[in-house]
Batch of 4 targets.
Target 1
Amino acid sequence: MWTLLINILLVATHLGEFWPFSIFPMFSQAGKEWSRGVVEQVEDSSRADLWETKSISEIENRILPLKDYGIHEIDFANFITKTKVWNEKRLNGMRSTFQIDQYPGEMWLATRVRGYMDERDSVVIEAIPMFLFTADTTIKNPHLFPEP
Amino acid sequence: MMRVLQNLFQLDDPDSVGTKIQLRAFEFFAVIYTLIYTWEWAFYIPRLSDVVLPLGLANYLDISIFFSNDISIYNAVLISLFTLVPLLLKRVRWLYAIAFVLFHLQHVARFSQGEIPHSANLVAFSLMGLGLAALFFKGMKKELSFAFGFTLFFFGLGYTSAAISKLVATGVTWVDGYHLWLWMGEKSIDILSLQGEFQYNWLQELAFNSRFLATLILSFGLITELLGFTIWFKKLRPYIVIMLIGMHVGIDLTMNIFFKTFTIQLIIMGFFWNRYINVIPGIEALNEHPLVKKILLY
C-alpha cells in the first residue's frame, strides 16, 4: 500500500516519470504531428536543393545508418527535435555525439523529419535539413537560421 | 484487498522445488538483465555531453558528472558486485537495495537526452523488490515471494495505467486506425535512421490498406492493456499474460518496437511453472542435492 502511495506521489510531482515509477504515457496522445531525425550523407554541398524541405522519399537512399557509427537513433531524434535554442553548446553536443571529427571527408546533414495527416487522410513525411557537419565545420540551414 | 495480496504474495506449495526454481529464475533474470542494461549504458554514457531532459534523481543532482569520464564504468562495476554477491552467495542481500539506487543513477545518466524508455522498468522494479525484501523480511522464501509479488503488482499497474493514460489524453477515439498509420510512419523513420533503409512488412501494408484492420489492432491493444491489472489474480494470470505477449508481438510487427525484456519476464512470471515442474517424477530430490541447493535453490 505504501509503495503505491510513493508511486503516486513521485509520478504526480515529476510529470509522470520518476524511473522506474511511471504512468507509462507512451503513445497516449494519438493523431498528433510528430518529429524525428535522420542524417543524410551529402556528396555535393553546393547542390541547389540542399537546404530545401523535401519529401522523405527524395533522400531515403542517402540516409546514414547510425548503428554503424554507434549513435543511438532515438537520442539523435530527441536531440534534434527537442532542442529549442541552438546555441554553440548544443551544436557542439551534437558534433560530439556524431564524433564526425574522426571522419574527414564526410559531410553529414542532420535533418528533422516531420509527419502528419493531410486533408486526404494520407500520411505525409517531409525532411527539413538543419545542419551540415563536416570534420571541421558546422553550417546552419540559412532558411531556418538567417544571418543577423 | 486481502484477496489481491494473497493472489500476489502467496505462492502454491512454497517449499517445493518447482516454486524455488521459478523464484530463483525470476531473481537470476532480474540480475542478468540489470547487468546487461548497466554495461550497455556504461559504455555509451561517456559519449554524452549535455543534459537535454533530467529524469528522476537527475532533477536534483548534476548528472553530467557521469559524462566524458569513466564514472559510469565504475558504477557498473559496483552494480555488478552488489547484485552478483547476493545472487550467488545468498548473503548480504540488502546490497540489492544499493544496487537499485546505483542502477537508477545509471539510467538517468544514460537517458538524459530526451528519450524516456520503459524497457528496463520492470527489471528495476524486480531489483527494487529484491532490495526491499532483504530490508524488511528474513529468509529467502519470504524475500523471493515478496519480490515476485511486488513485481507482478507493478506489471498490472503499469499496463492498466498505460491504457488509462491513453483514454485521458485522447479518449476512446485513440483506437482509430488513422493513428496507427501515423505511428507506423514515425517508427519507419527511426528504423531508416538506424539502419539506413526500411521496408514496410506484410501486416503494416495490410493495416495501411484497411483503416478497419488498423482500428481492430489498436482496439485489441487498448483492451489488453486495460485488463493488465488482472495479472494480480492467479486464475486470470495465464490468460492475460498470453494476451499481453500477443500485444507485444503485434507492437513489434506494426511499430517495430519489441519489448523483449518485458516479454521474457512475462513468460517467467506469468505462468505456473512451479506446478508444471513439481509433477516431474523425482524432482523433489533436487531439494536435497548439495550443489543444486548451494547455487540454484535455497
Note: Chain B touches chain A through 61 residues (CB under 8 Å).
Target 2
Amino acid sequence: MFAQDNKQPSAKDAPGPKPSVKLYSIFALQRDKAFTGEFETSKSKYKFTFAPKSAQVENGKLRLTGTFSVGARKVENVVATLASIQGGLGTVPTAINERPLKSSSGLPLTEATDIRGFVGAMYFHLSPIKAAALGLTIDMSKVQLNARLFPTSETERELQVVFSDVASALYGATPNANAAAPHLAALNQIF
Amino acid sequence: MREKIVFQVKTTRNQKLYDAIIIGSGASGGMAAKELTEKGMEVLVLEAGPPVNPARDFSMHTWPYEDMYRGFGPPGWRNIDQWMEDTAGHFSRHFYVKDSENPYTTEPGKPFLWVRARIVGGKTLHWGRLSWRLSDLDFKAASHDGFDVDWPIDYKEIEPYYDKVEEFVGVSGNHDNLWYQPNGKYLPPMNLTCGEQLLKKGSEKLGRPGITSRVSMLTAVKPHHKKYNRAACHYCGHCGDGCDVGAMFSSVSSTLPVAAATGKMTLRPNSVVRHINVDPKTGNAKGVSVVDRVTYQELEFQGKVIIVAGSTLESTRLLLNSKSRQHPNGVGNSSGVLGHYLVDHFGGISGMGVFPTLAGRDPVNEDGKAAGLFIPRFRNLDAKTKHPKFLRGYGFECSSGMGRNPGAGRFPGFGKEFKETVRKWSTAPVYMTTRANMLSRFENFVEIDPGGTVDAWGIPVLKIHIQHSDNEREMAKDAAECIEETLKSAGAEIISVGGNMTAPGKIIHELGTARMGNDKKTSVLNKWNQTHDVKNVFVTDGAAFIGAANQNPTITIMALTMRACDYIEAEMKRGNL
C-alpha cells in the first residue's frame, strides 16, 4: 500500500486553503436574509456576514447591495453581482416541486430539471472591498462570494424559490428581464 | 502619508526537466506513472489534493454504532460544503472535494452533478470497480447505427492492453462468451446469491443473459499482487470507505507503489495546475504552472511530455484554461471541439421486489461482496434486437440478498406485526437498476464560465451544459418496462418500478469533451491520446472517449493509458518527443 510521510497531515486532517496575498473566494450559507461564513488566511480565521438590503437588475445581472462585516467592522454599500449559478439536486423546494410539469409525452423525466429545477449555489462577484477597513491585510479587490442555499427556515425556503425564479428569468438560454421583475419585487419585499 | 500595501506573488521555477509530468494520480495518472517509470522515465506526478495515508485516512471496519451519528454524520454536513458529492459518506468524506472551494456552474433547470476526488489516488479510492471491456459494437457504433462517428481504434488494437490491465489490476469474473461483452483475463468470479440466481434464470427465460459482474477485486492473489502486499477480498463490504488490504484496485494499492519502487517517480500532492505552459517558438508544451493548494505558493515545473489525467472534466478545464498566443482557444482546441460531446450514463430507472420463495429464511451473511448480477445490453445488438424508438442500449445492475438495512421503510405498520413483516421480507429483496448509454451530442458541452466564476485558487471554472434527449427518454421507458418483465419472469413480487432519470453526472461516468479521432478538424486527440495540435500533450482519461457505451469506463481508461505510454516510449526513441 502506498503511504506518504506519516508526519505530514493527510486527507482526513488536511489543512484547507490559506492564502496570504489575495482572497479569491469566500463561502457562505444563506442564513435568514443574510449570507454568513468564515474564511481563512495564512494568519487567522475570520467570520463574516453579507447582509443584502436591496436587489436590482443591471445589465441583465442580479445585483444585491448591502453590508459586509467581519466581526464588529463593517463596509457599507458592497455590491454583489450574481455571475453564475449552480443548479440544485436532492430535495426540491416544496413550492417548486408542486409546480405542474408541462411534459405530456409520457416518457420518464430527468430529476430536478426544467420548471422543477432550482438553484443550489450562487456565485457573486463583490465590489472591491478595502480590507484595511475590516482590519485585514489581504487583497480583497476581487472577491467571489460562493453562496450556498440550504434552507432551514421559512424565510430561507422562500428566498431559495425567489432566487431560483430570478435565475430562470435572467441566466437561462433566453434571458428575460421583464419576467424577472415580479420576482425582483418579491426579493426586495423580503429584504 | 498612508503606506500603500502591495500584494505580490512570486513564482518559483523548478529547474529539473522531467521526462514526463503527469497531472492526476487516479486510474489514468497512476497507470501512466507505473508504465513510464517502468520504462525508465523520470516522472513528476502532480495531484491537486492532499496526500493519503491508509492507516489514518481509510475507515474500513468502522461500524455505524461506533459513531455518535451512526455513520450518517451531523445533520446537514453534506449539504453545507459537499452538496454535490453524492457518494460521499461521513466516513469517506475526506476522499471528496469541498464544493464550497470548487465551484462549477450550470444553466437554470439543467443541473449536472459533478462528483470529484482531489486526493492521491483520486476516485479509485471509492470507485464501483465494475470492469467491462468495450467491444466493436461500441468502438464501431456509428457503423452499426449511423449516429456520430466510430472510434479511431477497434477492439483488436486495444485487446492486448485490456489483457495486461486486467492481469495487473486483478479482475474477478467469468468467461460468458458474449460477442458484445468480450471475455478477459479473470480471477475466479464472486458467487451469486440465491436471489441473484433466481433473477438470472428469470432474465434468461426472456432470452437476456445474466452474468456475474466483473469487478476489480482480488478473489485470488497472484505473485505480483503479493509483492505489493495486496490481499484477497474478505467480503467486509466497506469498499467505499477505503480498502486497506488492497483487495480492491486503487492507485494507492496498485499502480503508485510500483512506480514508487522504481525510484523514478516524484509525487507532489496539493498541486493545483493552473495551466500548461508552451514554448512560444515551437508551440509545444514545456511545462506547467502550479499553485500550492494550501500555501498558495506559485510554482513552475518543466517536462518533455505532459500527460493530462486529472479526470474527464478537470482535464478539459485545464486545456481550455491553457490559452496562449499559439493556442488562443486553449491547448488542443484548434478544431473548436474541445469541451463538446459530454456524456454520462444515466440510471435512476430501477425496480425493487421480493422473492416469496426466499422470505422468512434464516439470516445469512450476503452483503459483503461487490459483484452482483449484470444483465448486459440486449437492445440493438443486431437486426433482430433492433428497437424502433432508440439507438444503442442499456444494461441492468442487479443485486439480491440480506443487507445491514432490513428495509423497514418499505412496509407500512407498527408494533409486533410490523417487525415480523420486516424480518420476513428482509431475506428476500431484489433490486435492478439501469446503466444506459447517453448519445454523444455536440450541444452537450462545457466551457470556461462566461460569468467569470473562479475556484478558491482563482482558476476559472467550468460551466456545464447538458441535458437528455428523447433517445435517452425512450430508452428509460423501455428499461422500466423490461425491469418489470424481468422481475415477474423471475417470480418476484414487485414493490416498485420506474423513477426519474438521474441528472447527468450522477452516475460519475462523465466522458468525452476531448474526443479522439482521425480528423483534426473534428477531434482533439489522435488515436494515441495525443493532441493533434501539440505533439507532447496527451490526454489519457475519460475525456478521450468518443461515446459512453453503457459499460463502466475505468478499465478502458487504463487500457488506453497503457497504450498511450507505449506510444510515448516509441516516439521518444524515434526522437519525435
Note: The mean pLDDT of chain B is 95.
Target 3
Amino acid sequence: MLNLTKVGRRFFSFSRSAYSKKVAVIGAGPSGFYTSLNLLKDKDPALQIDMFEKNPCPFGLVRYGVAPDHPEVKNCQERFQDTRNDRRFQYFGNVSVGSDIKLKELYDNYDVVVYSYGSSLENKLGIPGEDDHPAIINSRAFVGWYNGDPDYRDLDPPLDKVDSVIIIGNGNVAIDIARILMAPVDSHWKTTDITEHALRILKKSTVEKVTIVARRGFLESKFTNKEFKELLELHNEGVYFGGWPEEKFSSLKDLKLGRVDKRRLSLVNKYKSVIDEEAKDAETGKVKKVWYLDYLKSPIGFKVDSNDPSLLEEVIFRDNAITIQHDPDTGKYKSTITPTDGFSSIVCQMVIPSIGYKCEPMEEFEELGIPFDTGRGIIPNVDGKVEGRDDSFCVGWIANGSRGNINSTVMTSSLLAGIIQDQLKVVADGTDKPGRTSTESLLENRKVRVVNWDDWVKISEYERSQGEPKGKPGEKVTDYGEMLKICK
Amino acid sequence: MFRLALSRNLLRAVTPSLRTTISISHGYPASTALRSFRSFPAAFHGEQLTKPKPGEELHITFILKDGSQRTYEVSEGDSILDIAQANGLDMEGACGGSCACSTCHVIVDPDFYDKIPEPDDDENDMLDLAFGLTETSRLGCQVHMTKDLDGIRVALPAMTRNMQNKDFK
C-alpha cells in the first residue's frame, strides 16, 4: 500500500538536504566516536561533525578504562581512526566546553549537540574515611593510575605495605583490579601498555590476598563470565581462586537457572577444586596468591591500623540475608536482600571501592534548559534524545549510567545516529548554522591550543616509539603539558 | 539471558525470495573501489579477501537489517566477519575479530547451524552479551566458510528501539 505521507516526507527531506546538518559532539570516548561514525554513513556533503574533547588525547575509557591486558578490546581505536579520512569530521582536542568555548556557543553554531562526555564522579559508600584515607582508594583513581590518566599518576598506592586487599563491588572493573593486584608483573604486565609508574609499584607489591565483596548475592554478580573466567584462569600464573561462601547459596543447585547463571555456577565449582591440587607451595605448604569472592556483606566501617595509621586493619560489614524467589512474569529469579543483626569483619590493609560512577551536569545546563537527573547522575532521555529537547542528544554513560560494554555502546550509538538523522531533517528550518568556521575563529581568537587529529597522531606515534624498546605497544604520556609539547 | 526462538521464523520468512536472488557480487576488491570515494571511508572498515579459485566458489547470503539480501561468492576459510566487512555491510567487529566482543553477532539459518563446529566457551560467553540472542546465534568472526557451509544464510540482528537502562542491568 502506498503511504502518501511517507512519500511526501521523504521527498521533503531530500529537498532539505542542502541545509546545514551541523553536529557538535562533546566527549571523544567510544560512544561519541561510534555515534559519529554512524552519522558519517550518511553521505550528505552538508553533514558536519565537530568533536570536542577536554583532554588532548581522544578515546576516553578505551584509553583510560580498558585494562592493559585487553589489547583486543582497544582494537576499536583503529576504527575510530577512520574518521580522519572524512573531512566532514573534525577533532578538537584540548578544548573544554564551558570554558574554552561556551555550551551556548555550540548551540549557536550547530544544529544538534550530542553529549557523550561520560562520568566524572564515583558512587560513594557513605562511610567515614572513604574520601581521605590513603589506604582507601576508589576504583576510579586506581584504574586511572595504572592506565596513565594524568590526574592519578602520583597516586602511589601503598602496595608494598599491604598483604590483604578488599575490593568492594564485583563488576568487571573489580575483576580488572584483582588481576592488576595479583597477576605477576613479568609474565603478565611487562609487555602491556600499563604505565611505568604502575609497574614500578606493582613490582614491590606484597599483596597476597584479594577479597571481592558484594552486598547482594551470587546471582546478582555484576561481572561477566568472560572476565570471571579470565581471573580464574590466572591459576596458570600462580594466582588461585580461594572460594566463595557457597553454604549461603546451597539452594542454587536446585533452581532452574538460565544459561549465564548456570555457567557462572559451573565456573566456581570447577575452579575451586583447582586450588586443592596445585595451589600449595611444595616447600612451605602455603598458597601464595589467593583471591576470594564474598557476598551478602554491606560495609559499614573501616578500622584504621593503630600501629600504622596510613593503613587499615579491617573492614566491618553488616551481614545481609537473602531470599530467592521465582518471578513468573519474567521467568527469572529475584533475590531480596535484607540486613540482619549480624556483623562480620575481614582483615585487610587497603580497600578499593568499585561501585560504579556518576555523571555531572555541565555548568550551563540550567541556564540553557538542559535537564539533568542528579539522583541517577544522567541526562534524562528517551533512546538518547534528551527529554524536552529536539536539538540535544546523549549517549554512553551520560545517557545510561556507568554500565554496559563495547557491545551496548555500538548498539546504542547506532540507534542514536538514526534518531539524530531523522531529527536533522526536521530541525533544518532553513537557517544555516555557521558550524566549524565560526568555532575555529572563536578558538583562534581566544588563543586556545587546539589539538587536531594530526597532532594526536604525533602523540600516539611518540607513545609507540617510547614503548617499542620495552616490548610494549606504547608508553603513555601521562602529562597533558608534555603531550602539547610533543605535537608542537 | 534469553535465547529467542525467532531465528527459525525469521529465516523461513525470507526463504522464498531468496530463491530468486540474483545479485551475486564478489567479496573483493570492493575495498579499493570504495576507498577512493571520499565520503565513504569513515563508514567502511574492511578486510581484503582473496578471490576464490574458479570452480571453488562458496556462497553466502546475508539478510540485512532492512530485510534485503546480498549473496557473495567467497573462498573457503573466509570468516563471516571478514566477508561482511569486505563488502561494506553493517557489521562492526569492534575487537577486530578476536572474540572479545559480540558486535559481529549473526543469526544462522537453522538448516546450516548444525554444520558449523560448536561454539567454544569463549564464544558462548561473548554471545551471552549479545542483543537479541537466538538459538542459532553465532559470532561472525568465529565462523569460517567450509564446503559444508556453501549456500549458508545468516541474518544481521535487527536492533530495537526503546532499549533503555533496564536492558543493561
Note: Chain A touches chain B at residues 37, 40-41, 43, 45, 70, 72-73, 75-76, 78-79, 82-83, 85-89, 224-226, 229, 258-260, 263, 382-383, 400-401, 403-408, 410-412, 414-415 (CB under 8 Å).
Target 4
Amino acid sequence: MGIDRDRLQASVRAALACPDARWYRQMLAQDASGCPLSEDEADGVVQGAMAAAVSLAEKTRRAFPGVSAEALAAALQLEIVPMPDDAGLGNVPLIGQYQPGARQIRLHEQTLARIEDFIRAQGLEALTPASELRPCVLYHEIFHALEEATPGIYTRSAMLQRRWFGVWPRRRGLASASEIGAIHYSRIMSGIAYSPRLFECYLLLDGRAAPESLPGEFAGVGKEQNRAFD
Amino acid sequence: METLVGVLLVVTFIAMIAYCMKGGNLLVGFIVTAIVWCALGAVPMEKVVTDVFQTSVDTYGKTIAIIVFGAWFGRVLVDTGIAGYIIKKTVELAGDKPLVTTLLLSIVCALIFTSAFGVGSVMAIGMIVLPILFSLGIDKKTALGAYLLAVAAGMYLNIAYVNQFFVVFKSVKYDDNYIQFAIVATGVHIAAMIAFILFYYFRDHRNGRARAWSPASAATVASIKPLSWYCIVVPFLPIAMVSFFKWQPVPSFLLGIVVGLWFTHNLSSYSLGVEKLQKTLYDGVADSGLLIGMLYSVNIFQAAAKQVAPYLQHLLGGVIPTSPTALLIGFCVLAPLALFRGPLMIWGSGIALVTILQAMGTFDEMFLFALFLIPPVAMVASACPTQSWTMWGLSYAKLEPKLYIKTNLPFAWAALAVTEVIACVMLGKITL
C-alpha cells in the first residue's frame, strides 16, 4: 500500500503546529522503563526537562557563540563516528547514540539517509528540510554529553517520589526525561520550527506500509495521518 | 562383518553430526539416519514399519499432550497480557537503574519460564524485555545474553520441557526428588546469569550509560494493559499444583489456562472466552508443532538405534568409559560438544550416544538422565545459536552468532559443570 503524499503532507502540517509538550507527554507514556505518572507529575517532568534543555542551550550559546553542531562537538572533544549498520533492535533502527566511555557520538548513516530520502520522496523538503536532520541529531547527542558533565541536572535526577511495595519511600528518575531534554535541546540549538520527533515519525512511516501498523503517537499528533495511508 | 557394519554406522553417525552442526533440519536428519541404520543393520522390514516407525511414536501421546498444554498455557500468559504486566511491574519497581532493572527482569523472566513454554512465548516476552533493557543503555550482547540465560534458567522446573526427556528415559518422573534437584539447578543457573550480568555490566558500562535515539522503541511496552495485581500468581499455578498438590501436569495447565483467562476478564462472556481459548490453543499448538515433529523423529531414530545397538556395542564397547565419574568428567570438560546439536546434545546427534550408552547396560537410567538433561539447558539454550528462540533473538537484536557464543559460553560452561555434578549426585546417586 503506497503513501498518499497529499494526505501525508497535510498531516505533517498539522503535526508542525503541535505543541512541544504534547510530543514530550507521548515520550513519557512510551518510556519502556517508566512508570505511571499523575497529570501533575507528567507536566512537572516535561517542564523540568525542557527547562534543563533551555538552560544548557543558553550556556552553550554563551560559551560557543555561533558554532555549528560539528564544531561544537569538536570543541567538546567529542568524536563523531559512524555506527555499525546492524545497530538497532528488531525493525526499529537507531538514529544516533552517545557513548560516554569513548566520548563518541555515533551516527547511523543508513538511518539518516533513509529519513532524508523519505523527506525528498514524499515532498516534505519545504516543511522539514532534509539538511536539518544531521545537525539536529548531533545536538541531541551533544546534550547527553553535556548532561554527563552537569551534576545534578534535572534530566538525570531522581525526580519522582515512589514507595517500595507501597511502604518504603524511595526516589526514582525517568530515562525519558533525558530524551525529552535532548530532543528539546536539539530543537533550540538547530533553530528548527518543528519538533525533531517528526524525524522519528518519518522513519517509522518509511518502514511500514499498512495503515494498522502506523505508530499511534504520530496518528495522535497529526490527526489526519491515519487517513493518509488509506 | 559386525565390525564393518559398526564402522558404517559410526560413519553415518558422524555424517549426521556434521549435518546437525551445519544447521540441517533435525526432523529430516533423524528420519533419514534411522532408515540408513535400519538398512545397514539389515533390520527386517516388519520390525522397521512396526517397531521403528509406529510403536516408537505410538507411545509418545502423554508427553505430546503435556507439551501442547504447556505451550497453550504459555500463549495464555502472553496473549492475556499477564507476562507483559509482570514485566512492566518489575520495571516500575526497579526504577531507571539499568543494573537493578536488568537483574530483576532476568530473575522474573526465569520465574515466568518455569511455567511458560514454547518458542512463541520466548519471542513474545523477548519483544517486551529486550527493548526495555536496550532503552536503559544495556548493550545488545548483554541484554540478549541475559534474557536467553533467564529463559534457560526456568527450564529445569518447566514441566512441559522436562517431560520431553521422559520419552528417552522411561522410568524418570517429575517427582519430589526431581523437583528438589530442579530448584537447586535453577538457583545455580540464576547465579550464573547474575554473574554474567554483573561481569558485562561492570566491564562495559563503568564509564556511564550509553544513550540512544531510537523511534518509539517502547511501542510494545506502551501497549501493555493494566491488570489486577493477583494476576501475578497465574504463571506459578501449574507448577504449584504439581509440586504441592500432586496434580498431574495436564489438569494443572488447564487450571492455569482457565484462571489466567478468568483473572484477565477474558471469561466475561461465553463468546469471548471461547474465542480466547481457541486462539491461544491454536497459537500454542503452532508454537510447539515443529518441536513435536522433531521429538517424533528422535523417537524413530532411537528405535532404529536400538535395533542396531549390538553392532555399536561391539565396536564402541571398549572405547566408551564405563565409570560414571569418568563420563561425568568427560561431559564437564567436553561440554562445548553440545553446541550445534553435537554429540552431547540429546536433541541432536547426542540421541545416538544416549542410545549407545543405554544399550551398553552399564549405566543407571537416572544417571544417564542426569547427564543428558543439563547440556540442552546449560549449554544449548544458554549459548548455542541453533536453539530455535536463540535464532530469533540473534536476528531480532542483529547480533553476530560468534559474538553471542563468545559472550555466553564461559558462563554457560561454568553453569553446566556445576549443575552436572549436582545432577549426578542428587539424581544419578553417584558418589564422587
Note: Chain A has one domain: 5-84+94-229.
